[in-house]
Amino acid sequence: MGRYERREGELPPGQRLQRGWPVTHYGPVPRFKPDRWEFRVFGATADGDKTCWNHADFSALPYDTVVADFHCVTKFSMLGIEWGGVATSTVVKLAPPAADVTHVMVWAEYGFSSNLRIEDFLDDQSLFATHKGGQPLTAEHGFPVRLIVPGLYAWKGPKWVRGVEYMTADRRGFWEERGYHNIGDAWSEQRYSYQEEPGEGPEI
Ligand SMILES: Nc1nc2c(c(=O)[nH]1)N[C@H]1C(S)=C(S)[C@@H](COP(=O)(O)O)O[C@H]1N2
Ligand SMILES: [Mo]
Fold first, then answer.
1. For the Oxidoreductase molybdopterin-binding domain, which residue ranges apply (predicted)?
2. Which one of 4, 30, 56, 176 is least enclosed by Cβ atoms within 10 Å?
C-alpha cells in the first residue's frame, strides 16, 4: 500500500520530535457521564445485531498494551509511548463484522468520526486505549477511550470514542471530509485529500 515501510522509533517524512504531550482537537472536551456512556458496535455486523458495552463491561474486556509512535499531521511526533486498553481485534472477535465489511467508521462524542480501512483498523498494534504509561487517560487526552492506530496520522484515532460502525463501502469521516487524506498513512505522507490517487477515497 504505502510507498514507505513503517519503522518504529523513527520519524516519518516531514515530522519532528515533540517534547511533552500537547492537546490537539476540535471543539470542547466532553464530560464523562458514566451512567449514560456506552460503547456501541453496529452497522454491518455478522448477525445483524448491535453490541453495547457500558463502562463497567468495557473496562472488564481483556487488557492489552502496545508500545507505539504517535504522529500528528501538523508535523509533531512522539515515539515509544506505552498504551493500554482493548485491542481492536478483541472488539471484532466479540462483535464480529459481516464478511463483506471493508471499512469502519469510528464514532466519538459530539459526532466526531474517522473512517479506516478494516486492515488498518485491525493492524496488530491498533488499540482502544484507556491508559497511557499505566495511568488512565486524562479528560483532554480522550478519557475514557481513544483509538490508537500507529501507522496513521493521529486524527485517524478519535478521542472520546463511543462506537464502531462496520461499513461495506467507504465513507469519509470528520477530517476526511474537510481536506485531510482519506487513508492518512504517515509513512507515505498522506496528509491532504488533494494528494489522493484514484481509488484512495470516495468523492468529496
Ligand atoms: N474526538 C476527537 N478526537 C481527536 C481529534 C478531534 O478533533 N476530536 N483530533 C485528533 C488529532 S488531529 C490529534 S493530533 C490527536 C491529538 O491527541 P492528543 O490531544 O491526546 O495529543 O487526537 C485526534 N483525535
Ligand atoms: Mo493532529
1. 27-175
2. 56
